[in-house]
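Re: the 98-residue chain
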Amino acid sequence: MSTHKNIATDLCSATTAAKSDGTAGALSDTLDLRRVAQGIIIHAAGTVRVTPEDAEDGTYQPLPALAVGVAHPIGFKRLWSTGTTVVAANITLLYGKF
């Protein structure tokens, strides 16, 4: 069974802008997630930019248009603020096998 988590609760604790309700400020251009996400669901149309789990720090990859409401099996360690137009409240990170 997979574990779903709102992005705002999964950023490194140094992210003081992250809010418990997942509103703006939960994405980061400098901090990795506490653990690598194994997938993502977006709940609104837009773009998403990530650092793949096996990439060097500072490396990013804009994802192709993702279908809304679908679980996408993409492993990544950072979800960027710059280049991501989907607000954090409309992003769910997936962990474990699904």
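The CA atoms of residues 43 and 67 lie 9 Å apart.
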